[in-house]
Structures are given as structure tokens and as C-alpha cells.
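Entry:
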Amino acid sequence: MGWLDRGKKYSQGAPPPSLVEALKRMTRTHRAQQTRGFHFCPWCASRLSYGGPDGPEGSAEIRVMGRGVVYAAPELIAHYVEAHDYLPPTEFIEAVLSSDTVA
């Protein structure tokens, strides 16, 4: 869920008001698959100078329990929703907002 890339279309729209904050909390509490390197936002990184990356970065995934499914998403998903208008599928949004970390 939410692996986005330049040149590829993705669903856009206005998320529920609490989605970004819930996703940010999940990047602290639901981390998985930590890597040794970093992934940089493909849109923000394209605007950076040749001096090196200086934008949003992620090095893990988050896991979200849904109804009979576990969603995996990149750590940068909150950034994609907030800064690049990514609108995840409704089922994923509902799973995030019903998570016990949202309260």
C-alpha cells in the first residue's frame, strides 16, 4: 500500500482529518522490515541539489491490521498523504483510523 513513484499515476484526494497524524504515530509504533539504507521521496528528492539528499526519507515499513488482512506500507506514506495528496484505499484508511494507536 502506498509505494509511489514519479511518472506513475496514483489516487489523489482529501484524506480524513486525522489520517496523517494516525499514520505518523504508526511510523513510531508499527515499524517493520527495517532496512540498512534509505528511500527518499521521489518528488522532493528531485528538487534537491546535487549536494546530497536533504528531504523526507524512510527506511522501514509499517504494518496495519485490517479485516482479515495485514497491510504493509512504506514509512513515507504519511508524507505522501500530507505533501503529495495520496489517497489510500478506503479499507486501508478505515484500518488505520480504527487502530488502537489512534486513541
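The longest strand covers residues 61-65.
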